[in-house]
């Protein structure tokens, strides 16, 4: 695959869940989950595939699906066949409808107030739509919104409660991360399941009729106006909408009393093939044979008897697994250095941070840290106490620029334009993704600065908020130093950064983390 045709083929593959990685003919396979669950047989098959065709590990991703990296192109069809043998298909990347995000329903989670799975089964119908827009849909069973749906999804349904047999949801529209992150805004209240289905159908009708190429729900709101979008999405809700209910094959049918949802630590979302098989064994022996994919990359086994916990922990030691019952919340990451769009090795940084957390004996599950290799934020960096983004600041070399304009349409935020025969960059608009550097064939766009951007103060739940930038273009050493100081502050105050910022103000918190603190000798 060479030249223009090669790029077209790679984009087509992305839409089908086969995503190019760095390295000759290497790809990742995105595997769809049923209600964000897999059964133990399917998990073992994934382990076998990683051993046979990849590098013996996979990622529990923020999309609540497993991603298998480092599959050679020659093996892709064989992998797809082996997945099909256990009733697994591929999820998508690029401009397509994605796997429906959902948490546990009210028969499993004590906090859930609706049967979120029932609504997700009705919305699964839309996964088959051929619309060429990126559309993400999420259903949360309560206002805690553990799947961070208000930010991660174009359409977010938040459970309010149940009256008789009818569950009700508030609906938020416009959530997304990436180069232009935004929190969804409430567009409807107290919708039943059938009304929710009609609402989604209205959105699909709207994006097809009035959406520009590449539009997300946030773009529609910005261009058409919130009230116009609200009216069009709430049209004819009382009539309901017929849809095919696609039953979740890996549904959890409630849990017994005195059982727990066993959460497993998987730093950077990475789980090795021996660990996958052990998780499958434990799910069969102590649970219902179901493994849930959490949004923060932590594998979960619902329905485990509390009395079995010590036995499970001993079994986990055999494969170097830990339960997520101490330290901070699971540290999540994206592909890291092997993604074609990554500009830093975020996984290496996060693993060093994990070591510092252990050395500091920080023990607060409300503290959340994650990182992404670029500003696309696939590692959900904006919704954490500390989030890390890879960033590169470009500069134009006028002597090499020939005015070909190849780079101009590549910029997703329209920060590049022609000034006569030379391209110029609007530094205020640039999001430092670095895509223009990789596309220029004449070395006219060069790296001015590169490193880690640190975000602080992000938060999920009812008070969802995005983190703000406290430093940019840091070396790994500098990023580790400022992280150490933040960890010490959180331990001293026994709270998370969003609460500290509420007390001190963002600018005061940021100013207290001076560059001198980056370079001081680490205390541990």
Describe the model:
The protein is of the alpha+beta class and about 525 residues long. It has three domains: about 5-85 and about 250-315, Sulfite Reductase Hemoprotein, domain 2, CATH 3.90.480; about 100-240, Sulfite Reductase Hemoprotein, domain 1 (2-Layer Sandwich), CATH 3.30.413.10; about 335-520, Sulfite Reductase Hemoprotein, domain 1 (2-Layer Sandwich). Helices cover about 30% and strands about 20% of the residues. The chain has helices at about 5-15, 40-55, 75-85, 115-125, 150, 195-210, 215-225, 225-235, 275-285, 310-315, 345-360, 435-440, 475-495, 495-505, 505-510, 515-520; strands at about 20, 25-30, 35-40, 55-60, 65-70, 100, 135-140, 155-165, 165-175, 185-190, 260-265, 270, 290-295, 300-305, 330-335, 370, 385-395, 415-420, 420-425, 445-455, 470-475. The strands form five sheets. Strands 1-2-5-4-12 form a five-stranded antiparallel beta sheet. Strands 6-7-8-9-10 form a five-stranded mixed beta sheet. β8 (about 155-165) and β9 form a beta hairpin. α14 (about 495-505) crosses α15. It is globular, with a radius of gyration of 23 Å. Mean pLDDT is about 95; it is low at about 1-5 and about 515-524.
List keywords for this structure.
16 helices; 3 domains; 524 residues; single chain; 31% helix; disordered C terminus; Sulfite Reductase Hemoprotein, domain 1; Sulfite Reductase Hemoprotein, domain 2; five-stranded antiparallel sheet; alpha+beta; five-stranded mixed sheet; 22% strand; globular
């Amino acid at each position: 695959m060479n030249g223009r045709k090669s790029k077209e083929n790679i984009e087509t593959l992305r839409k089908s869940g086969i995503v190019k990685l760095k390295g000759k003919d290497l790809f990742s396979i995105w595997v769809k989950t049923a209600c964000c669950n897999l059964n133990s047989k399917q998990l073992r098959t994934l382990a076998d595939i990683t051993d046979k065709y990849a590098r013996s590990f996979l990622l529990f991703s923020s999309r609540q699906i497993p991603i298998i990296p480092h599959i050679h192109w020659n093996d892709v069809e064989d992998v797809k066949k082996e997945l099909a043998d256990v009733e697994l298909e591929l999820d998508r990347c690029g401009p397509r409808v994605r796997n429906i995000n959902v948490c546990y329903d009210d028969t499993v989670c004590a906090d859930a107030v609706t049967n979120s799975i029932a609504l997700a089964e009705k919305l699964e119908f839309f996964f088959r739509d051929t619309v060429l827009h990126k559309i993400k849909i999420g259903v949360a069973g309560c206002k805690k919104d553990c799947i961070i749906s208000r930010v991660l999804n174009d359409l977010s349904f938040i459970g309010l409660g149940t009256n008789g047999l009818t569950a009700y949801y508030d609906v938020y529209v416009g959530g997304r991360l990436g180069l232009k992150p935004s929190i969804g805004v409430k567009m409807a209240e107290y919708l039943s399941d059938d009304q929710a289905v009609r609402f989604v159908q209205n959105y699909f009708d709207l994006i097809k009729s009035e959406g520009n190429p590449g539009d997300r729900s946030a773009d529609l709101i910005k261009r058409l106006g919130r009230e116009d979008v609200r009216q069009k999405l709430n049209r004819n809700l009382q009539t309901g909408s017929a849809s095919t209910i696609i039953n979740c094959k890996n549904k959890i049918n409630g849990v017994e009393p005195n059982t727990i949802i066993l959460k497993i630590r998987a730093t950077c979302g990475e789980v090795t093939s021996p660990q996958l098989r052990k998780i499958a064994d434990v799910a069969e022996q102590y649970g219902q044979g179901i493994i849930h994919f959490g949004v923060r990359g932590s594998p979960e086994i619902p329905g485990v008897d509390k009395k079995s916990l010590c036995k499970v922990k001993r079994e986990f030691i055999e494969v170097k697994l830990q339960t997520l019952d101490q330290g901070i919340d699971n540290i999540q990451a994206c592909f890291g250095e092997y993604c074609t769009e990554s500009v830093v090795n975020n996984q290496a940084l996060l693993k060093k941070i994990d070591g510092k957390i252990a050395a500091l004996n920080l023990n607060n599950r409300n503290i959340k840290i994650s990182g992404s290799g670029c500003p696309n934020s696939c590692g959900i960096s904006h919704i954490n106490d500390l989030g890390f983004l890879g960033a590169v600041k470009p500069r134009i070399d006028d002597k090499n620029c020939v005015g070909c304009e190849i780079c101009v349409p590549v910029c997703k935020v329209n920060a590049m334009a022609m000034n006569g025969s030379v391209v110029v960059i609007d530094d205020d608009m640039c999001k430092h993704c670095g895509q223009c550097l990789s596309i220029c064939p004449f070395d006219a766009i060069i790296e001015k600065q590169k490193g880690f951007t640190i975000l602080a103060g992000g938060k999920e739940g009812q008070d969802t908020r995005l983190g703000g930038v406290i430093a940019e273009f840091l070396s790994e050493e500098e990023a580790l130093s400022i992280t150490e100081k933040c960890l010490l502050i959180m331990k001293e105050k026994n709270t998370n950064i969003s609460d500290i910022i509420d007390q001190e103000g963002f600018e005061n918190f940021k100013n207290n983390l001076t560059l001198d603190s980056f370079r001081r000798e680490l205390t541990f």
